[in-house]
Design brief:
With 174 residues, the chain is an alpha/beta fold. The protein contains six helices and five strands; from the N terminus they run E-H-E-H-E-H-E-H-E-H-H. The protein has a five-stranded parallel sheet, sandwiched between helices. The structure holds adenosine-5'-diphosphate.
Length: 174
């Protein structure tokens, strides 16, 4: 029987518990899930592709049927190269829908053999985003409820310890 492989693409700058929850739930549906780190999205990034892959690899270590890879170019092309015929995305608030819908229909045009499924976020992660993690950390807040220890360590290394009064968040981080 052929394996059902799904690709979960995103920037993951950095990974947080909302992403991990989606990957975990996808891993329970599909035989194999490839978390695909888009190397250079059209938005400013804090972490390099290698750093994002390294954090995700640690964060997904408890999921035996999940692997992490980075890619460039068209998502559908990368999915096909990996034997995946399904793209997994997460939906948080209603404002995500329009974007996800547009992306799913575009990918449908580019790769009719590849379908997109969206999993609804878990209640507690509905307002969690990578930008929020960076913003809260840079302002001196505790992000340990939002993201795993490997990311907290990486944020500390990259941005240094934040004081209680917080610091200005350069817009490049968001
Ligand atoms: P993008 O791919 O748009 O750069 P991200 O890398 O932040 O966005 O997220 C990758 C995928 O994970 C997207 O489908 C996004 O909607 C989803 N996602 C992000 N945060 C959450 C969350 N808190 N709950 C569920 N899904 C989420």
């Amino acid at each position: 029987m052929t394996q059902k492989i799904a690709l979960y693409p995103g920037s993951f700058d950095p990974v947080h518990y909302g992403h991990i929850d989606i990957a975990q739930r996808a891993a329970a549906i599909f035989d194999h899930v490839i978390v695909a780190v888009y190397e250079s999205p059209k938005k400013p990034l804090l972490f390099s592709p290698q750093e994002r892959v390294a954090m995700l690899t640690v964060a997904m270590a408890h999921l035996p049927n999940v692997t992490v890879r980075s890619y460039r170019g068209l998502t559908v092309k990368f999915a096909r190269s990996q034997g995946a015929h399904v793209l997994v995305r997460g939906l948080r608030v209603i404002s995500d829908f329009e974007m996800e819908y547009q992306m799913a229909l575009t990918n449908q045009q580019l790769g009719p053999d590849i379908d997109t499924i969206c999993l609804m976020t878990r209640y507690e992660y509905a307002f969690l985003s990578a930008s929020l993690v960076k913003e809260v950390f840079a302002a001196g807040g505790d992000v340990s409820q939002m993201t795993p220890p490997v990311v907290v360590e990486a944020l500390l290394k990259k941005l240094g310890p934040r004081n209680a009064n917080g610091v200005e968040v350069p817009s490049i981080m968001l």
